[in-house]
């Protein structure tokens, strides 16, 4: 296993979508054993540390039936897949029937082999853990119906979308569907009752068993079982679940990783309860708005918080980045996202410029051509993220001051400095706007620039510049760039070039 970096990189793979593509190529059903070594090696060479294999657990026929008949979901399937057929529905991978390797994907044995193959290449396997709910046909509906939120006839009549009848060998129960406080229930799930101490103990055992199968877990909607959220949703008091299980597993399995899907400004709360990383939806939302100031304000938070944020530009819940951003804005937003500190979170197909978000209820998506320009951009960006200074170095948000009085375009810039352990320097500068901009980027994080000439080589393009160190130290780096410009300058001392460095002057 390779040395673990301070800021790891994660690739999310929906294994059912991925294997449907493999099956089409092979002319037969594909399992996890059919993920070719060349792909595993390619992920490692690209610099990924973590591979989240979403959808590896067993789902069942009850969830599939709901997925195949839900009117709103059917409309979504047809939008995503013009040639949609009923056989494309496999059911949501978050309606888990059992935490065992999905039989259609090769079962437990293939899942264990995949982990060994990944680990052999220095990659860690991340799997799903869904704490809030189970599938409709989970065995607990028969053996332990009291593990769920139980309702009554009046609740079923008043809120038929929130409850359903479940028949057991002994009786008919009315159980609640899983949900959060703000949206309709998920009709292919049943809500677990964290007010029941026996359920909490059972889920601790389940999570421990899952942890033995992988190197980390991505916890779906992790904030829903926080005591304050659970009581607000269900009116039931409960004890904290996360602190005990994260502490125990971190002690038993050093390096085991907890990643939380979390919203509603509860990121810090879950970090304090033992999560290594939490989703940074706030940065994503601010980048979608394409205004630099809110982005900079978000990045002013302390490193104890920022270092543990998972930065993303798309995932299975969000639209494809190539679909919602213009190509120049996509490049600018990605540079801001992935050159910030924290966990760098990429989605399968993002690196190829795919534009269709495939619902998690489907086992296949549409065939999409590779966007060569997007692929080239991400190849350059991933090369930057492989640099030790960006994986393990020090990061500082830089100030940008007006290039001259009355020029307000400095407000449109986001700039960072990265410093490596051996003196490496990187400057990231992005004009997050649809118009040209000028500014001086203040280089206050470096105090050794004076008296030297510095070469600035843009890792995202072909530009190379020479700059006088005294000028850089005193005034900063002057930028005059077009809309959406993004630069990652590797800065090194230039010796005996015979060239005269440029001095920046006010316009």
Describe the structure.
By secondary structure, the chain is an alpha/beta fold. The protein folds into two domains: 324 residues, Alpha-Beta Barrel (TIM Barrel); 102 residues, Immunoglobulin-like (Sandwich). Helix content is 33%, strand content 22%. It has 19 helices and 23 strands. The strands form six sheets. Strands 1-2-5-10-11-12-13-14 form an eight-stranded parallel beta barrel, surrounded by five helices. Strands 15-17-18-23-20-21 form a six-stranded antiparallel β-sheet. A three-stranded antiparallel β-sheet has the order 16-19-22. Helix 11 links the parallel strand 11 and strand 12. Helix 12 runs antiparallel to helix 13 and helix 16 runs parallel beside helix 17. The longest helix has 15 residues. The termini are far apart. The mean pLDDT is 95.
Fraction of residues in helix:
25-40%
- CATH superfamily placement of the largest domain: Glycosidases
Q: Count up the helices.
A: 19
Distance between the termini: 53 Å
Please summarize the sheet with the most strands. 8 strands, parallel, barrel
- The share of residues in extended strands comes to 15-25%
The CATH class of the largest domain turns out to be Alpha Beta
Which radius of gyration do the C-alpha atoms yield? 25 Å
CATH topology label of the largest domain: TIM Barrel
Tally of individual domains:
2
Say how many strands there are.
23
Which residues sit in consecutive blocks of at least 5 with pLDDT less than 50?
Answer: none
Strand order of the largest sheet: 1-2-5-10-11-12-13-14
Given the C-alpha coordinates, what overall shape results? Answer: elongated
Please name the CATH architecture of the largest domain: Alpha-Beta Barrel
Secondary-structure content class: alpha/beta
The pLDDT mean sits at 95
């Amino acid at each position: 296993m390779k040395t673990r970096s301070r800021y790891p990189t994660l690739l999310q793979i929906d294994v059912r979508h991925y294997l449907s593509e493999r099956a089409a190529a092979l002319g037969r059903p594909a399992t996890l054993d059919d993920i070719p070594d060349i792909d595993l090696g390619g992920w490692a060479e690209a610099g990924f540390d973590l591979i989240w294999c979403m959808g590896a657990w067993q789902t069942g026929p009850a969830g599939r039936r709901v997925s195949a008949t839900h009117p709103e979901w059917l409309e979504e399937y047809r939008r995503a897949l013009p040639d949609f057929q009923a056989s494309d529905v496999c059911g949501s991978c978050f309606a888990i029937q059992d935490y065992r390797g999905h039989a259609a994907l090769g079962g437990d044995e293939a899942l264990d082999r995949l982990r060994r193959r990944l680990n052999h290449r220095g990659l860690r396997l991340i799997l799903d853990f869904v704490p809030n709910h189970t599938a409709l046909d989970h065995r607990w509906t028969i053996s332990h119906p009291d593990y769920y939120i139980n309702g009554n006839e009046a609740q079923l009549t008043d809120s038929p979308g929130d409850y359903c009848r479940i028949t057991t060998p002994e009786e008919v129960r009315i159980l609640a569907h899983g949900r959060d406080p703000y949206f309709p229930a998920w009709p292919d799930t049943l809500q677990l009752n964290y007010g029941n101490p026996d359920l909490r103990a059972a889920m601790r055992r389940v999570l421990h068993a899952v942890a033995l199968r992988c190197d980390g877990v991505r916890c779906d909607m992790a904030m829903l079982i926080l005591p304050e959220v659970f009581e607000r949703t269900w009116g039931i008091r409960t004890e904290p679940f996360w602190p005990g299980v994260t502490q125990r597993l971190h002690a038993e399995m050093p390096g085991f990783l907890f990643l939380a899907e979390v919203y509603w400004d509860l990121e810090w709360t879950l970090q304090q309860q033992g999560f290594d990383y939490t989703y940074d939806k706030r940065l994503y939302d601010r980048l979608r708005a394409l205004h630099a100031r809110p982005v900079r304000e978000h990045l002013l938070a302390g490193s104890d918080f920022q270092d543990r944020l998972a930065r993303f530009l798309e995932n299975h819940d969000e639209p494809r980045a190539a679909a919602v951003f213009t190509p120049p804005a996509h490049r600018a937003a990605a540079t801001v996202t992935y050159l910030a500190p924290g966990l760098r979170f990429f989605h399968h197909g993002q690196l190829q410029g795919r534009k269709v978000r495939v619902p998690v209820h489907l086992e296949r998506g549409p065939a999409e051509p590779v966007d060569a320009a997007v692929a080239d951009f991400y190849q350059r960006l991933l090369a930057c993220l492989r640099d030790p200074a960006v994986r393990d170095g020090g990061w500082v948000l830089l100030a940008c001051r007006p290039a001259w009085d009355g020029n307000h375009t400095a407000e449109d810039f986001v700039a960072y400095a990265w410093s490596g352990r051996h003196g490496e320097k990187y400057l990231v500068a992005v004009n997050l706007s649809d118009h040209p901009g000028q500014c001086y980027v203040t280089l206050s994080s470096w105090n050794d620039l004076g008296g030297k000439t510095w070469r600035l080589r843009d890792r995202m393009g072909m530009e190379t510049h020479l700059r006088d160190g005294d000028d850089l130290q005193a005034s900063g780096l002057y930028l005059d760039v077009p809309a959406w410009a993004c630069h990652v300058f590797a800065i090194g001392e230039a010796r005996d070039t015979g060239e005269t460095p440029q001095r920046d002057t006010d316009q």
